Amino acid sequence: xxxxxxxVVRGLLSEIGFSSLLFASxxxxxxxxxxxxxxxxxxxxxxQVFESEDRDRWQKPEWVVEQxxxxxxxxxxxxxxxxxxxxxxxxxAVGPSGKVLALDVDPTMLAHIAEDLNALELANVDTVLVxxxxxxxxxRSVDLLFLSNTLHHIENRTAYYPRMIDVLHExxxxxxxxxxxxxxxxxxxxxxxxxxxxxxxxEFTWAGLHITADLEDLPHxxxxxxxxxxxxxxxxxxxxxxxxxxxxSLADLPQxxxxxxxxxxxx
Length: 267
Hints:
By secondary structure, the protein is an alpha/beta fold. The chain has helices spanning about 30-35, 55-60, 60-70, 85-95, 105-120, 155-165, 195-205, 235-245, and strands at about 5-10, 75-80, 100-105, 125-130, 140-150, 170-180, 210-215, 220-230. Strand 2 (about 75-80), helix 4 (about 85-95) and strand 3 form a beta-alpha-beta unit. Helix 6 (about 155-165) runs antiparallel to helix 8 (about 235-245). The longest helix is centred in the middle third of the chain and has 14 residues, at about 105-120.
């Protein structure tokens, strides 16, 4: 079986420093981070570091994929794929007629994924090198855009959210798994490097993404699933609203009214 190709989507990677988006480099306990091997120019240690023996226990990958109810034959994009931890799960979920796109800014991670897929004989995955400021995919090309431990690394989310929505097929979804904004035994050590669940709900609501599921079974992470609100399918209304409303960033926006199920929390 031939190696899954490394597809390069060109972007202006130099415009934002490499340290601004380290998609997979903060999955480990603080002690392990301190003792991890030398990192590459993207700030990442070797991919194997993210495949720790106990990760399945707290990450619950099979349960996460089950909640997503992925239909065989569909297309899933794993944004910030890292070592391919979830990519492999998605490959099995979409089946031979489906497609998984492993997206990352670090080509060494993608090379590792390609080798791993070759060894496992998983032929339905393409690796895609993407820019820092975009998912790097054609419009209306995926059914599910999945971000695990990634969203909190995206600095200019005001501009990024419309690009996320643009890549979704009609009826497509965005799923986010990320660390609670509180002290934890693993993940980012600094609270400033975490994105609170309530902030994600607020930002998604403003950007035109409706939270359809808010799952709390993961011990260290929130798990949100969202779909575009129909009138925001164009998504570029987001940037127009920002300009006409006089707001400089998402942080300046007023808190949207949320249902009782989605009251703002500290975590």
